[in-house]
Specification:
4 helices, two-stranded antiparallel ribbon, elongated, mainly alpha
């Protein structure tokens, strides 16, 4: 008995958003893609026997977005890294980003409140370069 089956599709074509989260539409779309991909009868039988389908979009962050900070705002975790919406990867990245950012800010003595603006800016660029 399966509790969850994950099916990942890559589609370079723009798709119409299923804004109403119509479960029947999600089910039929998934089954159609499995058929078109030529999966065997065993895979189709399992998928056709499922009663719940979820559609989760995974989007990539544009490569051109190279700045993760503006003024006092700094991106980390899900906001900086496009992650699949499962397995806690966004939280994992947030912890790694926080450690990296704190090291860069410590290197310019940020906690003293006396770090010059240019040094903080350089630290933020260092964080971005390291985590990009």
């Amino acid at each position: 008995l399966f509790e969850m089956i994950a099916v990942v599709f890559r589609d370079d074509q723009p798709i119409v958003e299923n804004a109403d989260w119509d479960a029947a539409e999600v089910r039929e779309s998934c089954l159609q893609r499995l058929r078109e991909a030529g999966h065997g009868r065993e895979v189709l039988d399992v998928a056709e026997g499922c009663t719940r389908f979820f559609e989760l979009g995974v989007c990539e962050r544009p490569v051109a977005a190279t700045s993760w900070h503006k003024g006092r705002l700094v991106l980390l975790g899900d906001s900086a890294h496009a992650m699949p919406p499962f397995l806690g990867q966004g939280a994992n990245q947030a912890v790694q980003d926080a450690v990296c950012l704190s090291r860069w800010l410590k290197s310019v003595n940020f906690a003293s409140g006396e770090a010059p603006g240019f040094a903080v800016e350089a630290a933020l660029w260092g964080y971005t370069a390291q985590r990009l």
